[in-house]
Amino acid sequence: MTATATRAPRATRAMTPAGGRHRTGGGPRAGTIVAFLLPFFLPFVLFYLVPVCYAIWQSFLVVRRSGGQYGVAYTTFGGFEQYAQVFQNTEFWASIGRIGLFGIVQVPVMLFVALIMALLLDTPLLKLKSFFRISAFMPYAVPGVIAAIMWSFLYSPQLSPIVDVLKAIGLQPDFLGPGAILWSTANVSTWLWTGYNMLIMFSALQSIPQELYEAAKLDGASNWAIAWQIKVPIIAPSIILTTVFSIIGTLQLFAEPAVLRQISSNISSTFTPNMLAYAVASGNNYQQAAAISVVIALITFVLSFGFMRLTSKRAGL
Q1: Could you give the CA distance from residue 100 to residue 251 in angstroms, rounded to a whole number?
Q2: Cα gap 307→196, rounded to integer Å
């Protein structure tokens, strides 16, 4: 009895509680971790980090010629010379001002419409929610180039049925004119991205416990009060997130004005910062285009990160 009782703990230690053998290896092997992470990190490094680092390096280079204007061209390190030319470029600052005006008007309007749509979809009074949700999100499924082509047809004075209807009631619209082309472009962006932002806000609304609404109704709160005093403050992080995405997207605006430029002479090749960088690169001045791209990226980072920090502090996040 004594010998058996003495050996029993050894047998128990050799077995797991489930009856299997005890494994001496603690966590997963390093090779397994690498195998799972490699499909993400390899494309991330090759197609994101490497091009970004190469663009930054190119922005510090300049092309010079030996023996005068028609001498042999060679590339050398120029320090911040390309950046100095960017900050002295009046077309660059004009495009920044134009896109700044675009964002100040378009982003709040788009997010306000997206918020109203999300609140309407979240109310129990609305019928056919699935239909309206899909209808609102459907424009996001249309590529930006296709959307711009479609709206260019609707803006065209010779082809647009909208223009014909407005002329029939005595109006003379000029959607492609110098005073309206910026807002015509903003309309295309708003049509494309409102449903996307609405879906983010609506998803945040779906995570709010229903008990909060029931308690508010017991206290006599109306649907209007519940929407603006309970729902909107709770989904404030989602509204901030969509605003940051919109700021980034505004500074990256390219496809819509590039397509509308084919039918309107009021959109130049330097209409937006990205179009300016593309035009400079098309002239084989890749170093200057790289410097413009880096400056755009820095401005985007400062504005988006600054907005996030400012709003997060005020919201107590």
Answers
A1: 8
A2: 20
Distance (Å) of CA 183 to CA 100, 260, 268, 286, 309: 13, 12, 15, 31, 29
Q: How far is CA 157 from the centre of its chain?
A: 32
Contact by Cβ (8 Å): 61, 291: no
Q: What 3-state DSSP class applies to 284? A: coil
CA distance 295 to 83: 8
**Bridging pattern class, strands 61-66 and 72-77:** antiparallel
Give SS3 for 47: helix
- Regions in the chain scoring below 70 on pLDDT: 1-28, 68-69, 314-317
Each residue of 100-144: pLDDT tens digit? 999 999 999 999 999 999 998 888 777 777 788 888 888 888 888
Question: For residue 87, which amino acid is it?
Answer: F
Q: From CA 58, how far away is CA 47, in angstroms rounded?
A: 16
14, 39, 119 from 23: Cα distances, Å: 9, 29, 53
Residues written for the chain: 317
pTM (2 d.p.) = 0.82
Cα–Cα distance for residue pair 96/273, rounded to 1 Å: 6
In the block, residue with structure tokens 């409102």: 194
Question: Which residues fall within 8 angstroms of residue 202, CB to CB, at 6 or more apart?
Answer: 117, 118, 121, 122, 133
CA distance 116 to 227: 10
The tokens 């699935």 sit on which residue? 130
